[in-house]
Design goal:
By secondary structure, the chain is mainly α. It folds into 3 domains: 89-227, no CATH class; 234-309, 434 Repressor (Amino-terminal Domain); 317-347, no CATH class. The protein is built from 18 helices and no strands. It has helices at residues 4-13, 20-37, 41-59, 62-78, 84-93, 100-114, 123-146, 153-170, 179-192, 196-208, 212-226, 235-252, 257-263, 268-275, 283-293, 297-302, 314-324, 327-346. Helix 1 packs antiparallel against helix 2, helix 4 runs antiparallel to helix 5 (84-93) and helix 6 packs antiparallel against helix 7 (123-146). The protein is globular. The chain starts with a helix and ends with a helix.
C-alpha cells in the first residue's frame, strides 16, 4: 500500500507533460488508498484535479473543468489554515475561480501563507505559479465575465488586478525552468489589451523555443479569446485558428496525421505545418476537408464544428444551440440540468 506522502509526491511529479495513462493509473492508486484508509481531503482534491486533467485533455471545455474544481476551491476557502500541500493546490486551483472579485483575496491568502515556507526549495516556483494562474484567471474574466470591450469601473478594477499579477510574474527570477510563464505572460497581456502586433510577436518568439506542447497550449488559449473578436485578428492568428480546428476535427475522428494527409492528397509534414498554423490552409484544402469530414467550411474557419444539414433530433438541436451560446448561458444551462436531475432522482 502506498503512503499518502508517496501519492502526493507522485502527483506533483506529473509536472506539465501530462500523460492520460499515468494520470488514470495514479488516480486508481489514490482511490484505492482512500477506500482503504478513509477520507482524506487533500487526496480527494488530487483525485478531482486528475479528473480535471483528463477532462481538459479530452474536450478542452473549461466550464466542465471549473465544475470539477469547484469543491477544491470551496474546501480551501473554508479551511482555517493551509499547509504547504494546500498552498500548492491553491496555486493550481486559483486558475479555475469564476468570481474574479474573490480571486485577488484567494491569491493573496496563498502568497501570505507561502511566506512561511520561504526557505523551501520550491518557494519561487510556487509563487510564480500562483501569480501566473491568477493572471490567467483575470484574463478570462475580461472576456467571459465582463465582455472585452466593456468600459466600466469593474473593468478598470479588473485591469489593475491583471496588471498587478502579470507584473509579479515578470518580476520573478529568470530561471531556465521559468521560461514559459515569463514568455507567455507578455502574450496574455497583449490578448488582454488586444494588441495584435504584440500577440504575433509573442507567438513567433514562442515558436522559436521549439516546444510543441507550449505552442499548442497557448494557441488553444488564444483561440478561446479570439472567438470573441470575430475577424479582428491577423493572418498568423487566422492560420493558427484554422489549423487548430483541423487538428481537433482530425483527433475527434481518431485519424492519424499521415492517414488524414493521404485522404486529402497532401504530405504528412505539409498537413502538420497547417495544423500548427505555420502554413495557411488554402480555400481548396478547406473545401476538401469540409467535404471529406462532412462539416461546414465555416466550422473550420471559426473553430466551432457543425455538420452539414439541419439537426433533426432534440439532442442534436440542443448540441447545436450550445455551440453558439455565450459561456454564461452554458453555465446556467449546466446548473439547471444538474438541478433537474437531482429533483427527478429525489421523487
Amino acid at each position: 500500500m502506498h503512503s499518502k506522502q508517496s501519492l502526493i509526491d507522485s502527483f506533483f511529479a506529473l509536472g506539465g507533460n501530462l500523460d492520460e495513462r499515468k494520470i488514470l493509473k495514479l488516480k486508481k492508486r489514490m482511490v484505492k488508498f482512500l477506500n482503504s484508509k478513509g477520507q482524506d481531503e487533500q487526496l480527494a482534491d488530487f483525485v478531482r484535479i486528475l479528473d480535471m486533467y483528463v477532462e481538459e485533455m479530452g474536450t478542452n471545455k473549461s466550464e466542465l473543468s471549473h465544475h470539477i474544481m469547484l469543491p477544491v476551491l470551496e474546501r480551501l476557502i473554508n479551511a482555517c489554515d493551509w499547509d504547504f500541500v494546500d498552498i500548492r493546490v491553491a496555486a493550481l486551483a486559483v486558475g479555475f475561480a469564476r468570481n474574479y472579485k474573490i480571486v485577488d483575496d484567494f491569491a493573496q491568502r496563498a502568497l501570505t501563507a507561502l511566506e512561511n515556507y520561504k526557505s523551501d526549495e520550491l518557494y519561487a516556483r510556487v509563487k510564480l505559479s500562483i501569480c501566473y494562474n491568477t493572471a490567467g484567471c483575470l484574463l478570462r474574466a475580461k472576456y467571459y465575465d465582463l465582455g472585452h470591450t466593456t468600459v466600466s469601473e469593474e473593468m478598470d478594477e479588473l485591469t489593475v488586478l491583471f496588471e498587478k499579477y502579470a507584473d509579479m510574474v515578470m518580476a520573478q527570477p529568470d530561471k531556465p525552468e521559468f521560461w514559459m510563464p515569463k514568455l507567455t505572460t507578455p502574450m496574455r497581456r497583449a490578448i488582454f489589451f488586444r494588441d495584435n502586433d504584440a500577440i504575433d510577436a509573442s507567438l513567433i518568439e514562442l515558436d522559436k523555443k521549439g516546444n510543441a506542447a507550449a505552442c499548442l497550449a497557448m494557441a488553444t488559449e488564444l483561440n478561446h479569446y479570439n472567438a470573441f473578436v470575430g475577424d479582428d485578428i491577423t493572418k498568423l492568428q487566422h492560420n493558427i485558428r484554422v489549423g487548430d480546428s483541423i487538428r481537433k476535427l482530425r483527433l475527434s475522428k481518431g485519424i492519424r496525421v499521415d492517414d488524414f494527409a493521404k485522404m486529402l492528397n497532401l504530405s504528412g509534414p505539409f498537413l502538420h505545418s497547417i495544423e500548427r498554423g505555420k502554413r495557411g490552409a488554402t480555400t481548396y484544402n478547406i473545401l476538401k476537408i469540409s467535404e471529406k469530414m462532412d462539416v461546414t467550411t465555416d466550422s473550420l474557419i471559426r473553430g466551432t464544428f457543425s455538420h452539414k444539414g439541419e439537426p433533426k433530433t432534440k439532442n442534436q438541436k440542443l448540441k447545436a444551440l450550445i455551440d453558439i451560446m455565450e459561456a454564461a448561458d452554458v453555465d446556467w444551462l449546466y446548473d439547471s440540468a444538474n438541478y433537474l436531475i437531482k429533483v427527478r432522482h429525489s421523487e
